[in-house]
Amino acid sequence: MTQKELYKSLTYERKNVYEKLTDEQKQEMLAFCEEYKTFLNSGKTERECIVMAEKMAAENGFVNMDAKKQLKPGDRVYKINRGKNILLAVIGSEDIEDGVNVIGAHVDSPRLDLKQNPLYESCDLALLKTHYYGGIKKYQWPATPLAMHGVIHTSSGEKINICIGEDENDPVFCVTDLLPHLAKDQMTKKMTEGIEGESLNILVGGMGIYDDDVSEKVKFYILKLLNERYGIVEKDFISAEIELVPAFRARDVGLDASFVGAYGQDDRVCAFTALKSIITTASPKKTAVCVLVDKEEIGSVGNTGMLSRFFDMTLAEIVHKIKGSCDLITYNRVISNTACMSSDVGVAVDPNYEGVTEKRNSAYAGKGLIVMKYTGARGKSESSDANAEFVYQVCKILDDNNIVWQTGELGKVDQGGGGTIAQYVANMNIDVIDCGVPVLSMHSPFEITAKGDIYMAYLAYNAFFKCR
Ligand code: MN
Ligand code: MN
Prior knowledge:
By secondary structure, the protein is α/β, with parallel strands linked by helices. It is 30% helix and 24% strand.
């Protein structure tokens, strides 16, 4: 062995995905990403993603679990929670007490939500009040076209789906921004204070109905239009969930079209790859489960987030339908032998902001799936720090299946940080590790991912379902 060969055998070096792909795999990667972009364009809210997931499941032999009294190996089922959270399972041939393989991703993304009494008139303009959802940099949201998605329940009991701004012929909405000419005071403020939360108001109208007896003429016209088009009145906003999201579509980025640029890739890039992985899984040994959750961006709270008992209850129901019963001891055995890939995105080193990452331990766009032992902030707080034994097991599966992967962490120590659903999965006594796609411009209206990494995540999830 030469010194060079010895050096190579002793050191660890990241690989680039494109260095490893065969021509055939490159073609598959490109086709896969075309499908992914279509998914992103149709799934801009958690509800829309669950609709897409159910459609993909139904087209691939999955049936609603409620329709099944018993489950046997090979069965494909799903269960939906309140339209925002889904669990899909392919029943394995092994005893379920030996555990299941779970891949969990989230389908909610940062955005602007309408308040309950949103509509008002000011300066002869009609506007809607919002409360932002998740971690946004507020300056990124004004002066960009927004689309309106969501549901409204009318007083007559009807549920109306709203989607305005996605069709080329639709109008869009926006938050106006201050002209630089008059921004002298604004520009000297801290970035956190330059745009205030209460000024993220959506412009919705300016025409008005001019009747002397009506005081709010512009608001009146908007209410009249809403009533004509949707049959709603102002009070109906109270029982609505309406989200403002970027109106543009997913696009290729770069002369070599090597990236996907789109809104909501955190975490729909992992949700889509996880979904594709479970629907292409047939006759696994261990039962394969894919769970897509809501509310990750605000702490995994609520009855559709990872902290909800939905996952627990649905898994117990699966055990019950396989075994005919599910006592606590049996369930505990299932859970204790279960393992999970928490598939969430990670930060990719950005050449414009290299200073916030520590290069030896950060992930790079184009260098494959990120395997993140821990996330968290200030001394790994709010993190699930995976066991070395489980990290070894996962990395071995990835290596055995020629997956290009890399380690990652959420920025330099004490630079900031964040969490994923991993800690809540771990609390159930499940082995879990974060495995996802590196993202540039994370949480911005236009997030960037590398096509090679997207494809590697899909292959990695397949390998996990097949080999653990
Ligand atoms: Mn995420
Ligand atoms: Mn996020």
